[in-house]
Amino acid sequence: MKKTFFQKTFNLNVTLLVLGSLCFFLKFGLSLLIQLLETSRLAATYEVFYLISEKLSLLAHYIQLGALCLVLIPIFLIGIELIQRLTKDSLWNYVKSVYQTFACDNSSNKRNSLNPLSLLKIRPLPVSIPF
Description:
The chain is mostly helical and 131 residues long. Helix content is 80%, strand content 0%. The chain contains 4 helices and no strands. Helix 1 packs antiparallel against helix 2. The longest helix has 43 residues. It is flat.
């Protein structure tokens, strides 16, 4: 059976959106760290902190560019899927497909997870030899 475009790109889109949001949070944390380093005005360590903050700001810039790319790729792929759905099918079916995929993933995760209460139950061992 041939996979549809939705089936090929759904997990990729979810993964890229999660990675993109993590990169945005990392960039936010780095910018807070840069501000913290720039506000420390000790004369002896100013040049070291200035050099570190320069390198961190460069890293934060590249992380922001990467995060932007990680978010734009799924938006582009979802846009292609939406255009295909509008021309060949209905947009409501796309929404139902996304919902059913998440529901199927959640139900499979519930089945595969261990029940911690069943691990706590102590089962008596059968004794074959009487004492």
